[in-house]
Each structure stands twice: as C-alpha cells, then as structure tokens.
Amino acid sequence: xxxxxxxxSPTATVLERRDTPVPQPAPHQLLVRMLSASLNRGExxxxxxxxxxxxxxxxxxxxxAGEVIAVGAEVTRFKPGDRVMGxxxxxxxxxALMEDIEAMVVPPALSWDEAASIALTYLVSYDMLxxxxxxxxxxxVLINGVSSGVGVASLQLAKALGAKVIGTSGSAxxxxxxxxxxxxxxxxxxxxxxxxxxxxxxxxxxxxxxINTVGGTVFAEDIRAMAFEGRLATVGYVDGVVHAxxxxxxxxxxxxxxxxxxxxxxxxxxxxxxxxxxVADVMPHFAAGRIRPQIDRVFEFSxxxxxxxxxxxxxxxxKIVLRIATS
Length: 327
Fold this sequence. Notes:
- The protein is 25% helix and 28% strand.
- It has eleven helices and 16 strands.
- It has helices spanning 112-115, 119-132, 149-160, 172-178, 195-201, 219-224, 248-253, 268-272, 275-281, 283-287, 304-313; strands spanning 2-8, 13-19, 29-38, 57-59, 63-71, 83-87, 95-99, 104-105, 140-144, 164-169, 185-188, 207-212, 226-234, 257-260, 295-300, 319-323.
- Strands 3, 5, 6, 7, 8, 15 and 16 form a seven-stranded mixed sheet that branches.
- The longest helix has 14 residues, at 119-132.
C-alpha cells in the first residue's frame, strides 16, 4: 500500500511517498481503508508534539475517516464495512490502524471529507471549551488565529454552547468568511494590540476564555484581555515563540487559570478518555447539521506537498483535506 512519511529537521521537512506493508490490527485495533484525512498545523511545527524528534522519519497523518476492513480479536463495537472516523496515526496512507477506543461512527449526514476533519480538531476544542474551559451560556470567548482549523472548530463549538466569540486574524477577508458561522466580533490584527478592543466589546468584562493558537507573541496581551476568573488555553505556537512575560499581579488579582492543550505526553488511555463524552455532547450537533466542518480545500492523494504548502502559507480558513480514495 502507499503511505506518506516525513522527516523533520529544525530548518526543513522532507516528504516521501512509500510502498509499505499493510498493517495488521492488534486485539483492540481496526484496520481501516482510509478515504479522507485532514492536515493539522502541529504536524509541521518542530517540537509541537505531532511529529517525532528532529531527523526521525514518521508516518504522516493524525485524523481521518474510512471503512473498516478488519478488526482485532477483542473488538466488539465495529465490524468490516462500518463507516468510522477518529484520530489515527499514519492517516495519510491507503490503509491505517485506528484504536477501537478512539473510533467513532460517521453520521450519515457527513461526507468523508467532513468526517475526516472532526476527530483531532474538535476533540481539542472540546478539551479547551468544555473539559478545562468550562464555557457557559453568555460567556465571552477570544480566539487568536480564529481562521485556523482549531480556531474555526472552537468558534463553532463555542456558539453551540451559547457563548459569544471574538476572533483575531490578520486577514479581513478570512474574518468576513467566518461571520456566517457566528463570529460576533472580528478584530483584524496579527499584533498584540487587541486587549483594549476586547474590553470595549465586552463592556469592560473581558474574555472568560482565551484560546491562543498563535503563541508567545500574543500571550501577554491575552492576559490583559482576560476577565476576572478567566481561563487561558495555549494550544499552539505557530509563531515559534515559546517564551513570554507573565504579569503575576494580573494572574493573582484576577484569579486567572492558565492551561495547555496537548497530547504529546498523554498515554493512549488518557487521549481516549474524553471520546465517550465528546460523542454524547458534540456528535449530535454534527448528526443534526447544526455544526458542519469548515472545509477550506480538498487535495488529491498525490498532492500532499501542495496541501502542506497551503497550510504553511496560512492561506486557509478551516480544514485542509487530503482525499485518499473514493468510496
């Protein structure tokens, strides 16, 4: 079978399309014929956690959707022919293994491209907004880099939870495209200069939850934009800045909570622990059409290099999908 591998160094990445043996499912795994998979920026950022150490080769892809070919000896929830989606190592391959505890049924209303864009991105958003962020009806959510895959997913989920959303982006065009998804306040900026506008938009209340997909360049400004007992989620650092000043007086007086969102050091069981709650809380929104993944562009299997280039150029709004096969 064909699959994509990548070698990362501090200065460059090398893609390679290989002929590799078909993997065999362990007792708690599914062998899936991959139909679509989606790209995630962290796969291409050194040290981000979605790739191995510098210089190592790794099978690419972290989430996708397809049809079950075979199941491990102890799998009882799925059978060959089932439509599944989930986080999946090596998803940029014609066939890949998916853990039984990570796999989710694809609702009939979703296309393969849409199903491939949910598992990793929306589970991360669920972690930030619900499990750690405790967002409620009427809360203000500030999303730095709102046009990214995680940014759009967080916008959609926040609106489904009844929150109000402020988004930052350096592109007015991208912000305009997100207005129909419910973006309440659009701030066109890449600079750390948005706190005053956030305070004005929220009648001096501030953001109850901040989602930082950008990195250290906006961290201090995020602190200034936060409400009393606000929460700040750091989910990425595409700016490459991993250190930032922390205003301890603001942290102390406003009783702020700061947390990170990463699967880098989590065990398999820890990664999968939120899946049942996600299926119960969020999947009904997809099944009913209240949330639809925002697909920026679909590339064919042979076009991974072009898909990667589009992601790294920052031209996308929402998810970039790699279509591996047709159903």
